[in-house]
């Protein structure tokens, strides 16, 4: 048995188990538990999207497909971007992938060789560093600064973490789990740094439409970058359209990378199944009413969390500028992992421990607030009652 593991390549042997999944495994079957641990809401995918996939299946679209996505989906993505960013986009700069996660994995395969480094501001969604490790690369954590539950990042901190092995910077704005949402000046500084040092930016702006500062979307590298800047944008259908279980995403990248991206897709999944691509087209073309309702649901969830935590002196929390997570510190509740497990056992609320997002998350807990107002209000009531009972 040990020999079998010893025979694996180092990346596979060393890949860390996800701390989020650890909490899910521990609490999954607890009766009456309200699950706020995963990055998804409680609504299923809208019917109009499901029907597009079903129709395609019954129409016999069951054959091999274009590795980088059917032209109609890439055109729909270009039109969607035009609506969001106010200028035309070339469909040939879009590459359909099997999820946002796979988009990240492919971007890492593009730029990260054995021993190469990618900077990851932390606390961060753990899958990027996990995927870098699996490749034999290294995710270098760049601790963000925190004050009163608000997080910040500067290009200077990124510059200080660079070494001759740095090949890329991962920027997730709005961020999971912190809600940090970069302003345009910070993006400008990071882009200048990437240009100067000749490294790629992997831009993860999947939560761009979940922004709570009054804008329609967060500031984007797309607002300031040239078409041939070294930026790989990863994205997904998961969040806007409640499609987490479908596993469909995309990359937007300079057209010059087309052959490299096609090859990486060919030698991994060889393309996303056509019915799911049809679902993606339906999402982009008919999904706006759902997206608006989903954003409103998250906005309401953010308010419910803020109201529940207000005035609670055991909790350090600032309402996030973007994304749909509350990331808060609970005084005196032991380690994050213990806190998450006790919240499962004693409050029947499923949360993700802050340490799942790196060492800088110690003491913090994450909950996802895209959920029906009733269910979220009940979860918050349980959590606050648990804390007020003097637990910990
Ligand atoms: C920051 C970030 N990027 C990417 C993803 C990937 O989403 P998916 O693999 O469901 O497309 C997630 C999912 O939680 C995320 O939080």
Structure write-up:
The protein has 392 residues and is of the alpha/beta class. The chain folds into 2 domains: 2-45 and 289-387, Aspartate Aminotransferase, domain 1, CATH 3.90.1150.10; 61-287, Type I PLP-dependent aspartate aminotransferase-like (Major domain) (Aspartate Aminotransferase, domain 2), CATH 3.40.640.10. The chain has 14 helices and 15 strands. The protein has helices at 2-6, 10-14, 19-27, 47-58, 71-85, 100-111, 127-134, 155-160, 184-197, 258-266, 274-286, 288-309, 336-347, 373-388; strands at residues 34-35, 94-97, 117-122, 138-143, 145-147, 150-152, 166-172, 200-204, 231-236, 249-252, 315-316, 325-330, 349-350, 352-353, 364-368. The strands form 4 sheets. A 7-stranded mixed sheet has the order 2-10-9-8-7-3-4, with helices on both faces. Strand 11 (315-316) and strand 12 form a beta hairpin. The protein starts with a helix and ends with a helix. It binds pyridoxal-5'-phosphate. Pyridoxal-5'-phosphate is lined by residues 39, 99-101, 125, 172, 176, 204, 206, 236, 238, 244, 249.
List keywords for this structure.
14 helices; Aspartate Aminotransferase, domain 1; binds pyridoxal-5'-phosphate; 392 residues; alpha/beta; 2 domains; Aspartate Aminotransferase, domain 2
Q: What's the CATH topology label of the largest domain?
A: Aspartate Aminotransferase, domain 2
Query: How many domains?
Result: 2
Major beta-sheet overview: 7 strands, mixed
| CATH superfamily placement of the largest domain | Type I PLP-dependent aspartate aminotransferase-like (Major domain)
Gap between N and C termini, in Å? 40 Å
Order of helices and strands: HHHEHHEHEHEEEHEHEEEHHHEEHEEEH
| Overall mean confidence score, pLDDT | 95
CATH architecture heading of the largest domain: 3-Layer(aba) Sandwich
């Amino acid at each position: 048995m040990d020999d079998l593991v010893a025979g694996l390549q180092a990346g596979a042997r060393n890949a860390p188990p996800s701390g989020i999944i650890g909490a899910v495994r521990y609490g999954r079957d607890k009766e009456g538990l309200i699950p706020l641990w995963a990055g998804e809401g409680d609504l299923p995918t809208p019917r109009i999207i499901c029907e597009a996939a079903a129709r395609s299946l019954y129409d016999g679209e069951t054959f091999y497909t274009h590795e980088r996505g059917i032209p109609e989906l890439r055109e729909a993505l270009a039109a969607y971007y035009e609506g969001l960013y106010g200028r035309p986009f070339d469909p040939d700069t879009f590459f359909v992938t099997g999820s946002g996660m796979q988009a990240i994995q492919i971007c890492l395969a593009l730029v990260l060789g054995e021993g190469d480094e990618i900077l990851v501001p932390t606390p961060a969604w753990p899958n990027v560093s996990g995927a870098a490790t699996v490749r034999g690369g290294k995710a270098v954590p760049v601790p963000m600064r925190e004050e009163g539950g608000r997080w910040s990042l500067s290009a200077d901190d990124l510059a200080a973490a660079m070494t001759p092995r740095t090949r890329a910077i991962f920027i997730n704005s709005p961020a999971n789990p912190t809600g940090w949402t970069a302003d345009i000046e910070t993006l400008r500084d990071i882009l200048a740094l990437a240009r100067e040092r000749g490294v790629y930016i992997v831009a993860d702006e999947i939560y761009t439409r979940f922004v709570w500062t009054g804008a329609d979307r967060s500031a984007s590298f797309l607002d300031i970058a040239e078409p041939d800047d070294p930026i790989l944008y990863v994205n997904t259908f998961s969040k806007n359209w409640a499609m987490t279980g479908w596993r469909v995403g995309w990359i937007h990248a300079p057209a010059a990378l087309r052959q490299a991206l096609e090859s990486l897709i060919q030698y991994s999944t060889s393309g996303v199944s056509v019915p799911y691509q049809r679902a993606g087209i339906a999402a982009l073309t008919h999904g706006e009413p759902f997206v608006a309702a989903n954003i409103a649901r998250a906005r309401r969830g953010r308010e419910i969390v803020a109201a529940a935590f207000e005035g609670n002196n055991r909790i350090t929390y600032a309402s996030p500028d973007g994304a749909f997570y509350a990331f808060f510190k609970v005084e005196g509740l032991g380690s994050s992992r213990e806190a998450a497990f006790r919240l499962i056992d004693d409050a029947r609320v499923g949360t993700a421990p802050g340490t799942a997002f790196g060492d800088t998350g110690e003491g913090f807990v994450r909950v996802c607030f895209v959920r029906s107002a009733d269910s979220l209000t009940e979860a918050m009531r349980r959590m606050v009652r648990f804390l007020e009972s003097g637990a910990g």
